[in-house]
Predict the structure.
Amino acid sequence: MAQAPASASWEPLGETFYRKQDIYSMQWSISDLSDFIVAGAPWGGPLAMIRDDRKPVLLGRHAIGKPKISVYSSAGGLLQTISWDPPTRIVSLGWTHSESLVVLTQDGTYRLYSLSTGSAPPSYTQHSLGPDAQEAGVIEAKIYEEGMVALLGNLSFVEVKGWQKSSGEGGVGGKVTLLASAGLNEPPSCWCVIPPELSHTRGVEVLIGSGATVLRLDEIDVQDQRITRGPFLSITPSPNGRFLSLLSHPSGSSPQLWVTSADFTRSLSEFDLGGEGEVGAPGQVVWCGNNTVVVAWERTVVMVGPFGETLKYFYSDPVFLVGETDGTRIISNEACEFLQIVPQSSQDVFRPGSASPSAILFEAAELFEKRSPKADEYIRNIKTELVAAVDTCIDAAGRELEVVWQKKLLRAATFGKTFLDLYNPNDFVRMTQTLRVLNAARFYEIGIPLTYDQYQAHPPSHLIARLTSRSQHLLSLRISSFLSLSPAPVLKHWAQSRITTLTSTSTPSEEDSMCLSIVEKLKDQVDVSCADVAQTAWSVGQTGLATKLLDHEVRGEKQVPLLLSMKEDEVALRKAIESGDPNLVYTVLLHLKRSHALGDFFRYVDNKPDASSLLQVYAKENDVEMLRDFYYQDDRRKETACLALEESLGVEDVAERVAKVKAAAKSFGEDKDCSFEAKMIEDQLRLLTFQQSLEQEASGKTFIGLSVNDTIRACILAGLSKKADKVKSDFKVPDKRFWYIKLKSLITLRDWEGLEAFARSKKSPIGYEPWVEHLVSTGNHRQAVGFIARCETRNRVELYVRTGSGCWRGRSVLGRRRGGSCCDDLKSRAPNAIIAAQLDQLIGEMDQAGM
């Protein structure tokens, strides 16, 4: 049997063609769609349905019991069932961009249900429109992909910007904003929402049918569009937001469809729907792409073109329309159909009588398969336009929903490429990849009838996420691999789905088996970790599995926070220490300090040297009192004493400082290994007591806090030489050190008489060279000369040189005694020419004397 041509389903509408194609035979057993409230997701998305409780129930048609929301694919496959028990009535159903189902109730509460096909109960987050909605109630709502606008009982409008911002029931939902007052006295006859991404103001706009006119409402103001064509029954914006279709039904006349620009400055077309043979106004008005409007009664669908042309389709049962960016899905009890304009590339190839290069190329490929010699003649005729013909066939293949025509068009493109010397095959390869992905998604068991244009509107990861949410993990992984995308999101969702299948009665062996299978799948993945999956396990109550999964997590920064959330504090601290990250250890320590009593907190740190060291570093800078308690708890006497000493250094009050030093002495005394330290602290106490008496004797002078050496120096500088001697005696200061201190102190005072007396008091234990050096270094050269004679003979010449030019002659005499080499050295360092000449004379005399 010969195959029907591709244009068999085309119908002309004005100067172009439209086609209505069967996509699926529905798998459900629904007999009447009019009994349900239906919400269809765009982009070939699922259908959510709940029985309309405002309509009477025919016995035997529907089960009696609690209402439930059923979610079906476009092919009628049941994806999810949600039991509905809340006491308030459902006002509206809708879908988000990520295919989460939005369920809004009359009391202003809305839920976001994640699409899931697993056996576990559907997960959701619950949010509120605020106290105004709870008090006044919700009349109606319009839900779009990135938000929602609701009409409240007090006739005000509120907007939900975005959706959930945190997980878990009762989490924070999208931002709720009250729009400007529309000044309504009664509910509007109709209204619609223009989403922010389509609005000229980049904010949400609400168009309200009020009497004969339309009001435009946003957050700031309300504007009357000053038209007189109402009242309106519906206002529907086009997918690109540039046009509006308004349905009115004046009293005593037939329904009127008016298409205008979004700003009401241009009237594009008007159409009287009274001649379509249906009674009353249509129940639905949607756009078919951005070109035509589709209206539907229960069993009749009419497409209205830009110039008033129409196409009619009749059904035996009620239908439901879902507007798409490039067409309209028509859902009936028996089938899912897609109505769209025939793409230009398809028209070029398949339009009857077409003489375009692409049509000739397609015909040439068909003739070539039949081994007809005319194929070569056809190719020669379009040789100069062959590249464009190949490109058109490739594009047309992407626009076709039937695989047979996709293959024919791609074979035609392949045939044409063989006659081209240079042709970039990237578009061809990309299209074949895209078609394989689209055909897999369109398969009836999957039920996502994406068109090529819809697929191009989002990145491939969006389709993979949609497949993943339906638990099509194998297909998602194959597509990810086929398109060279990371499989991490799919594997993460797969692992989380596996976990939700466990029950409270699952055995440890089942947990072990699941843990190993998850770890095996995730072991080579960089973008997903065991901690991500363990979070899900813990959230559903599988604490044992979560802990086992975390044992396989190698990244401490992901592992530790979850362990803390799970109250596994001991394990969290151990893992933080093993990670080698001090910041992570600090995080755990601070968490433990906040959440536990101080004694319990210290027990966590006990026997963990790394954590103990970091705790001490932190406490020294931020909480000394806690550090003292920690040392006391751990019986660390030595550390307690050192801490007391450190604190004493910053205390100005003498009595308090003495008390802290005494506390340190007590702690050192209680540690048998710190006898030396205890003795030193006793000396420190004696020194403090002596310094205190010195400050009383020498008012205005500071002694507290000085070392023994500095105390001696301060006593000498204050004229308390006897006190300095007492310090030397009491603290057994060695003679050499004492002489150095006193020498420097007397030079600082410039007490030359005292310095001379000190030198004569007894033989210097440090010699006299240091006297000369310190005097020279402080610029007291003349005083230094007087002590050179007391120095050793072998050092005197050098010391004379260091004192300057005052006594060069005398030094030359010494040089004579030591020989010519010394005189030569003196000459090289002579400060002026006169002394250099004297040294030359001396060297000559020495030469004559044979020295």
